[in-house]
Every structure is written in C-alpha cells, then in structure tokens.
From TrEMBL:
EC numbers for this chain: 2.1.1.192
Name under which the protein is recorded: Probable dual-specificity RNA methyltransferase RlmN
Misc remark: Reaction proceeds by a ping-pong mechanism involving intermediate methylation of a conserved cysteine residue.
Sequence positions that bind S-adenosyl-L-methionine: G181, E182, S215, S238, L239, H240, N314
Pfam family, one: Radical_SAM
Sequence ranges assigned to domain Radical SAM core in this UniProt record: 112-352
Function recorded in the entry: Specifically methylates position 2 of adenine 2503 in 23S rRNA and position 2 of adenine 37 in tRNAs.
Molecular function (Gene Ontology), one example: rRNA binding
InterPro entries documented for this protein: Aldolase_TIM, Methyltransferase_A, RlmN_N, RNA_MTrfase_RlmN, rRNA_lsu_MTrfase_RlmN/Cfr, rSAM, rSAM_sf
Lineage: Bacteria, Bacillati, Actinomycetota, Actinomycetes, Streptosporangiales
Amino acid sequence: MSAQLTFAAPRRAKPPRHLADLSPDERREAVAALDEKPFRADQLSRHYFGRLVDDPADMTDLPAAVRDRLVAELMPSLLTSVRDQVCDEGMTRKTLWKAFDGTLIESVLMRYPDRVTMCVSSQAGCGMNCPFCATGQAGLTRNLSTAEIVEQVVAGARALARGQIPGGAGRVSNIVFMGMGEPLASFNNVVRAIHRFSDPSPAGLGISQRNITVSTVGLVPAIGRLTDLDLKVRLAVSLHAPDDELRDELVPINTRWKVAEVLDAAWAYADRTRRRVSIEYALIRDINDQAWRADLLGRLIKGHPVHVNLIPLNPTPGSKWTASRPTVQTEFVRHLEAHGVPVTVRDTRGQEIDGACGQLAAMPQETPLRSQQG
Ligand code: SAH
C-alpha cells in the first residue's frame, strides 16, 4: 500500500483568536493591548473557564462597553452546534460542530456511573490514512486551534453543569484525544489545550492531567517532545499490529517509524512520567486477531509498564473489515494474559450514532434512524 501521508496541514484562514488560545499571562497582555486593565483578563477567564458563561449578558462585573469590546476581541463564537445525537439513554452524546470557516468536526460526551469522558477532535479530518478509520478516509482539512479544541470540552462541561445530560448536574472528569485527527501532528495546539484543561480553575478547567489521554499513531519524534515536557497525561499508542508487515498496512505511518521505534519511544515516555502506556489494538476479523499475533505482542511488551486496550473494530461504511468473532477475541485476550500483560476490552459506546472509536467522520447529510436529533 502506498502511504499518502500529510504532515503539514493545508494553508487556510486561521480561526479567530480566543481567550482559550492564550496562557493567563498572554491574556493579560492581550487585554492590556486593548487598553483595558489587565485584571479584566482574569474576569474573562472566570466567566469562560470557571462559570462556563456563554452569554455576555451574564458577565455583570464588566461594564457593558468594556464587555462588548472584550467579548468581541477575545471570546468570539468559534463552534456552532449543527446537531446532537444521543444514545445509551442520553448518557452518550455526539455533537457535530461547524467552525468559522464551515469546517465540520465532532466530539463525544460519555457519562458513566463514576466519570464523564469527553472524546475530542484535534484536527478536522486526519492525514494518517489508516484504512479502517472513518476519519482517515477524507484526508486532513486543517488543524484545530487550541481554543477550538478547548471549546468542545467547555461545551460539554456547560451541558453537564446545567443538568442537560441525564443523571443530574455533573462535571467533565476525563478527556481523550481520540476524536478526529492525530493530536501529535498538531503538537503545539494540543499541548496548549492540555494546559487549558489542566490549569486550576479559573485559569483553566482544573481537570487532572492524569485524566487526560493523548492517543497517537506513533509519531516518534513528537512522542519524544512530549516526553521532554514532563506532563502527566496518559499516552496511548495505536499499535493494531505487532509486526511491521501488517502495521505498514493498518497504520501507514509505520513505513516511517517502525513498531520497535514506536515502542521504545513509548517506554521512554513511561519511564519519565511514571505512567503506564496504553496500547490500543482494534481487533479486525482475520486480519490482526490471530493467536500468534497476540503472542508476538505479548513478547514485545511484557515487563513494561503497559496496558492493552482491545477495541472491537467498528466497521466503517464500505469497509471490507469487521470485528473479530467473540471466541477469537477471547483467545486473543487469553494469549496476552498468559504473558502477564494487563488487558481490557473497550466498550463500544455510541456505535449506533456513529460516535464510537474511529467512526467520527462528520457527515452532516446522514439522517440517523434510531437517535434523537437536537
Ligand atoms: N489519531 C489518533 C487518535 C484518534 S483515533 C490515533 O490514531 O491514536 C482513536 C483510536 O480509535 C485509535 O486507537 C484508532 O486507531 C482507533 N480506531 C480508529 N478507527 C477505528 C475503528 N473503525 N474501530 C475501532 N477503533 C478505531
């Protein structure tokens, strides 16, 4: 298979600047540059990150004229909800967003008894071209700005705080960069977003870095850069095959950075951060689900701080591939466990609204049959 890999995002108009693009210091500078008192920046932060205000009329501590100006300059509307789809009795909600330039992206909120996880997009589309992933099929449109990434979570946090998700008022506790896009291909915006998520409220959302997962195809130099930042986020590596021959096909960037290099980078990350690395492995019937591949994977990773997350493949439209047979999946788990490797099988929330892993493709024309539309 020839690997058509896009690294640089296409040149496009930039999304408008937003408070969430900026660090607390940069916010004060931006406000000062508008000839306002720097403490106004903290007020804006408190409204956006702390109180989750979206209507400027609620910012009553800001004089009306100042408010209008600062909101126009620093809190432009970035994402407009085009459609919500819900399933699992409302506990899973996928939102299709339209950005300032018409670009479409998706995010998913998943409420569990003990946590709320938001799955966010880091890019519109994706350039990694993995043949089993819906997002990969259309290629990369552009990177999302930091604030466009943050806004997906803030919108979910607002809905939860206002009791719009069944189960009562709540908070976002976990974030996974497992929506559209390859987060490490938009490194700086993603790292800035991590800071906005984890900075204590009201500078940020106050979500622990330990509850944030960055999932990557394995861009080795970028994993190294992330390691050097000494963050506490969890790293997930989308491996999907333990051998280069098959991985070259399933994750085409493997033609550039091989399994061994990706795993070495992952161990270095684990070493530095003292955090277990998660290996993502979508089980694809008769493609990568053989017991011998489980054994090979087990041999490669045993003894390392690792956890394997098996994902039953979510078939994408037109794909010839499907999920493994249940008995084969059980065998795969058994073979891995025989090496002493911790394994879990990911639940497949949101399947019926195409909101499950790898299904985010932002097709506005699709009309779901079984889900509610908002
Ligand atoms: N680009 C990043 C993050 C986005 S995808 C990455 O590749 O890790 C999040 C996870 O969903 C990845 O492990 C990805 O391989 C997996 N995935 C993609 N398509 C899938 C599908 N159709 N079924 C199951 N998992 C899929």
